[in-house]
SRPBCC family protein
Amino acid sequence: MPFPTHKTSNAADGIVETKNGSHVLRFERYLPHSIEQVWAALTEPEQLVAWLAEADVEPSKGGLVQLRWLNTDEQGKHAVMNAAITQFDPPRLLEYAGDIHGVLRFELQEAAGGCILAFSSTLPAPNTHLALQLAGWHSHLDFLAEALDGKAVDWPHWPLDLWQKHYDRYSQGQKDV
């Protein structure tokens, strides 16, 4: 059974598209916050740590980004992404290409009472870890919504059980791609 390539009944779910030798993981979320508030959460280090990772960000095209995830992998190590900003159009578009997690793209569009965030992660194909990636981004985007509402992730006690639910659901659709 392949990964979903269109939205399911759960509008928060990600989809996978495969084209030109890459997998593109896509999520779309409505956030009941202004574009400016969401932009700040995407670009300001003191806000990024509340939902994604500790960060250093040079907010300009060509600027450098370093993300240090505070949740650990199976070996107790923290993932670190070193990236360069490839597209920067405040407060609507942020894209960076990094050494892990590929190209991350955040696009914001105004919507009634808030905004829509279109997020994508582009990774080389083939990739046998797509369920892991989908579950991770799904969780982080959930954390973003919570952070915008004033609730930061407690990283030493982050909700691994919620991530596991997402992973189990996404892995049911995994095939070698």
About this structure: The CA atoms of residues 140 and 163 lie 9 Å apart. The helical segments are 35-43, 45-48, 130-148, 160-171.
